[in-house]
Amino acid sequence: MLKEFKAFIMTGNVIDLAIAVILAGAVGAVVKGFVSMIMMPIIGMFTGGVNFKDLKYVLSEAVKDAEGVVTVPENAILYGAWIDTIISLIIVGFVLFMIVKAYNKAKKKKEEAPAEPPAPSKEEVLLTEIRDLLAKK
Fold it and tell me: What is the homologous superfamily of the domain 2-112 according to CATH?
């Protein structure tokens, strides 16, 4: 069973999948950083200086004791963070679309390359020689 597992893990598809998952996590972190740190401040500037991460709908306020320590945290719907996530999704979707489009275009060019004509069979070569000999007579 251990040998079968080792053979399964060492196949190219599993290794390719593992690499893809690791890269997807890294790309996700980069896109999240890009959206949160670059895009959202720009969008916030055009919307009157709104920080989207601060946008929320408070369902119940936080409860504090006499010393100001929070005993019950605030219960809120963080729709600004959700908008951040939606913009990340749109950017990732667009990037994946562009990658697939470029891949399909490259694949199509490779398929369109003219294939070399197949070599004539032995019978065709023999018949061609006979034809040429008859044409000489």
Answer: Large-conductance mechanosensitive channel, MscL; domain 1 (1.10.1200.120)
| Of 31, 37, 20, the residue nearest 89 (C-alpha) | 31
H helices of 1-137, where?
A: 2-9, 12-34, 40-46, 79-112, 122-136
In order of 21, 90, 115, the CA distances from 37 in angstroms are: 24, 16, 50
Contact assessment for residue 80 and residue 52, using Cβ atoms and an 8 Å cutoff: yes
> Would you list the domain boundaries of the chain?
2-112
Strand pairing class (57-60; 63-64) = unpaired
Quickly tell me which residue has 């023999």 as its tokens: 126
| pLDDT by 10s per residue, the chain, length 137 | 888 877 777 776 777 788 888 888 888 888 888 888 888 888 888 888 877 778 899 998 888 888 888 888 889 999 988 888 888 788 878 877 888 898 888 877 766 666 777 888 888 888 888 888 888 87
Whole-structure pTM over 0.85, yes or no? no
